[in-house]
Fold this sequence. Notes:
The structure holds 2 protein chains of 2 kinds. Chain A is of the alpha+beta class.
Amino acid sequence: MILPPYATLLGIAIEPDDDGTRRLLLPFAGKVSGRPGFLHGGAIGGLLEMAAILRLRDALGDEAAVVKPVTLTVDYMRGGREKPTHAAGVVRRLGSRVANVDAIAWQDDRAEPIAAARLTFLIKR
Amino acid sequence: MQPIPFDPQSFFKRFTWEHHGSTLGIVYHAHGIDWTELALPYGEHLIGDPASGVIASGPILTLLDQATSSAVWLKRGGFLPHATLDLRIDYLRAATPGRTVIGRGECYRLTRSVAFVRGTAHDGDPDDPLAHVAGTFMVTRMPAGVAA
C-alpha cells in the first residue's frame, strides 16, 4: 500500500510491528496539533483510520480490491502529547464483502492507548 | 468573572499557533446559538484515493470534530475547557472531487458533565449529506473561584 497525499500531509510513515505486521508512526508537529501542545482529535482519528486500512490491505493482499470505510467510532482516552504516536490495526473479521477492523493509538506504552477505533469496511474485489 | 466569550467567526479566522484544522484548510462558514458550520475547500493534499481524487475521510472527521466542538462552546456560552470522549462517523457516500465540504455540528443536549453533539457534512446540497456524526464531550467545570 502506498500512503495517499492526506497521510503524507500528516507526516505519517509505515513502520514494522512486533509481530511482523505493519503499523503507522505519526511524528508530533504543529500541523497535527489542536490546542497548543496536544494532538488534534481529528488527526488522531485520521491516523487510526489509516492504520486500520493498512492492516486490512495487508490482510487482503489484493492491490486491486477497493475498500471503503462505512462507519468509524473513535474513543478518546488520553490527551496526545508532543511525542511520536504509533497506531496499529487488528482485523476482527474479514468477509467477502464486509470487514471489521479495530485500531489503537499509543505513545509511550501500548497498554495505555491515547485512543481506540472500531471500523466497518465494504470490500469490492 | 464571566467565561471568555466565544465567537466562531473570529476563532476560526486566526489561530496564533500552527493548527491541524488550518493545515487542512478549514474555515468558518456560519453559526447560530448552538450550532456551527465550517467549510473544507477541496485540495489535492486531502486526497485519500489518488485514482479517483476523492478526499480521505480523516479530514471530514476533523471538520466535524471542530464544528461540533464549536457548537459546545456556543451552547456553554464561552470558551471553556472540554475533551472529546467519542465520535462516531457514518460515511454515507464519497465526497465529490473538486467540491467544498460543509460540516455542520450541533450541541443538542448539555448536562453538568457531558455535551451531546450531532452533525452532518455535505458538498453543496444539505439534503444529500455525505457523512453523519454523533458524539460526546466531557465538559470540565470552571476553575475554583470562577463563577460560570
